[in-house]
Amino acid sequence: MKNTRLLTSFVMLFICMLVTTTAWAQGQKQKASPADSTSGKIGTATITINYSSPSVKGRTIWGELVPYGKVWRAGANEATRFTTDQDIMVAGKLLPAGTYSFYTIPNKDQWTIIFNKTARQWGTEYDQKQDALRVTAKPRTGAPMSERLTYAITKDGMVLRWETLEVPVPIKPAKK
Q1: Could you tell me the residue range of the domain that residue 6 belongs to?
Q2: Is pTM beyond 0.90 here?
Q3: Per residue in 45-64, pLDDT tens?
Q4: Closest Cα to residue 75, out of 126, 127, 36?
Q5: Nearest Cα to 110, choosing from 36, 168, 51, 27?
């Protein structure tokens, strides 16, 4: 009798552990647009970009999912954040050290690149009056297909890559 109770208790404990583990694993699905970041140096300035990385998933990105001529948060979920610990020159214009939300206005031949003073905001809460800097950049066809949106810091600046498109943004150290 005592052994039966002990065996029943162990079986119940095992079932509870199995159900709890399965329920926990279900809640751990990968997000559709997981958070990502990149960081690098341009001169002595450290630049960090924090963003959510959506996937192509067979969709037409440019001109459809991301419409031409409209402000885009350059990622998913919260607005992409761009941080520089020193003043830098972006496409020849001064951007003071700080953290900014990063937006774009994509078009086929030219993009508007926007650094907005309101750094932490939901991606669609853009307010043009808070723009710290706007510059333009020329998109180009990228080499391999990039399923996920990514950013890279290079010796010449930053590059947004998604699908078969790259948008390089020239960045240089600010002269002191």
Answers
A1: 1-30
A2: no
A3: 999 999 999 999 999 999 99
A4: 36
A5: 168
Question: What tens digit of pLDDT does each residue of 62-119 get?
Answer: 999 999 999 999 999 999 999 999 999 999 999 999 999 999 999 999 999 999 999 8
Q: What angle do CA 170, 46, 113 make, to 5 degrees?
A: 35
CA distance 66 to 50: 19
The verdict on 82 and 138 lying in the same domain is yes
For the chain, the domain total comes to 2
* Partners of 141 in beta bridges: 165
Residue 113 class from Cβ within 10 Å (0-12 exposed, 13-18 middle, 19+ buried)?
buried
